[in-house]
Each structure stands twice: as structure tokens, then as C-alpha cells.
Amino acid sequence: MSELKLRKIGNSVGVILSKEILAKLRVDNGDMLYVAETANGIELSPFNPEFSQQMGAAEDIMRSNRDVLKKLAE
Q1: Residue 26: inside a domain, yes or no?
Q2: H/E element holding 42?
Q3: CA nearest 46: which of 69, 25, 21?
Q4: Which of 13, 17, 33, 48 is deepest in the core (most CB within 10 A)?
Q5: pTM of whole model > 0.85?
Q6: Alpha-carbon gap, residue 20 to 1, rounded angstroms
Q7: Contact 18/27 with Cβ under 8 angstroms?
Q8: Running DSSP on this structure, what letter comes out for residue 46?
Q9: What backbone torsions phi and psi does residue 36 show, to the nearest 5 degrees?
Q10: What is the pLDDT of residues 3-49, one digit of tens each?
Q11: Residue among 5, 17, 11 at smallest CA distance from 45
């Protein structure tokens, strides 16, 4: 288990993530992390559930309209 120290950053409070944690999350400076409340506490993740849901809807539309999209591509 890792510990993170809270630090004052301007008028806010933040944490500094080590290189190892950034590597495990596969993120770098400037990337977005998403916060989710789970049964075990707060989870930070690079996974955007809203974008994933939108992509799932787009895939459903593309799958159901495959013939139309193929004709448009010609």
C-alpha cells in the first residue's frame, strides 16, 4: 500500500503521484483521471465511463446499419 501526502497547490489541495503509480495507471502529465466512488472508497482511473458508453452506442448503431454505412462509403 502506498501513502500520498496532501499538499497545498495554490488555493487547492492536491497529491503528487510517483512515477511508479503513473506508470501503473498508464498516464502522464496533462492526462485526465476520472474519480468514481466505489464500495471500497474513491477510485482514480484513466477510464472514462461516459466515453465508453457513447462508444458502445456508436458500435450498436454501426452494427445495425452496416449495409447503409457500407453503401455510403462507396
Answers
A1: yes
A2: strand 41-45
A3: 25
A4: 17
A5: no
A6: 13
A7: no
A8: S
A9: -130, 140
A10: 889 999 999 999 989 899 899 999 999 999 998 888 999 888 888 77
A11: 17
Which one, of 8, 4, 12, lies nearest residue 42 by Cα?
4
Contact assessment for residue 17 and residue 36, using Cβ atoms and an 8 Å cutoff: no
pLDDT digits (tens, 9 = 90+) for 24-37: 999 999 999 998 88
Question: Is 19 among the domain residues?
Answer: yes
Q: What length does the chain have?
A: 74
The x, y and z cell numbers of residue 36, run together, are: 468514481
Q: Supply the range of the domain harboring residue 21.
A: 6-73
Residue 1 counted as domain residue: no
Flag whether 32 is in a domain: yes
Query: What's the total number of domains in the chain?
Result: 1
CATH label of the domain that carries residue 23: 2.10.260
